[in-house]
Amino acid sequence: MKRYGAVIKVRPEKLAEYKKLHAAVWPEVLDMIAQCNIRNYSIYHKDGYLFSYFEYHGDDFAADMAKMAADPTTQKWWQVCKPCQQPLETRAEGEWWADMEEVFHCD
Fold this sequence. Notes:
Alpha-Beta Plaits; five-stranded antiparallel sheet; 28% strand
């Protein structure tokens, strides 16, 4: 299992909409997340930033993320969510959410 953290900004005028969307995530999207070996997935908000945390339990992260990205329902979900988000200027090329470095963990 590998832990992942990522960050993105939320547009202030879209925060309520983003929260409403995530209070009722489409079941097909949740199913695809599970099919792609993601567990213990959370998104937190603070001061205009969204922090995403999840645990990956598969053995080919790139393949699982490609599977998710190719799913038509997930693509529609992302199109609904993207207008609420504002990527960080410091994100790596090709990232929407900026990956974070884990600097500490304690079980």
